């Protein structure tokens, strides 16, 4: 039971770090050229949603990679 709690905390931390890093990476993308002028709030909301989606995918990859790597010890 304790292991599940630790796994949950580590997963949340990994997701938050991945979302933060993806938000920083999204600053390099200029969506203003694609979005119509005067839609500042919608552009910021799109940045946020794209950062969350990208962060979730990266975080999910990292967590799955760690879990799978830990299961490799059962092979030997």
From TrEMBL:
Keyword Transmembrane: yes
Top-level taxon of origin: Bacteria
Keyword hit for Transmembrane helix: yes
Family matches, as Pfam families: DUF1146
Keywords: Membrane, Transmembrane, Transmembrane helix
Transmembrane segments: 6-25, 45-66
Entry-linked NCBIfam families: int_mem_ywzB
Protein name stated in the entry: DUF1146 domain-containing protein
Source organism of this protein record: Lactobacillus gallinarum
Native organism taxonomy: Bacteria, Bacillati, Bacillota, Bacilli, Lactobacillales
């Amino acid at each position: 039971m304790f292991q599940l709690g630790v796994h949950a905390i580590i997963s949340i931390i990994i997701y938050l770090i991945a979302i933060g890093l993806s938000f920083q990476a999204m600053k390099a993308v200029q969506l203003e050229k694609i979005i119509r002028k005067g839609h500042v709030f919608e552009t910021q909301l799109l940045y946020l949603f794209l950062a969350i989606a990208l962060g979730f995918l990266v975080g999910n990859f990292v967590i799955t990679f760690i879990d799978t790597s830990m299961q490799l010890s059962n092979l030997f």
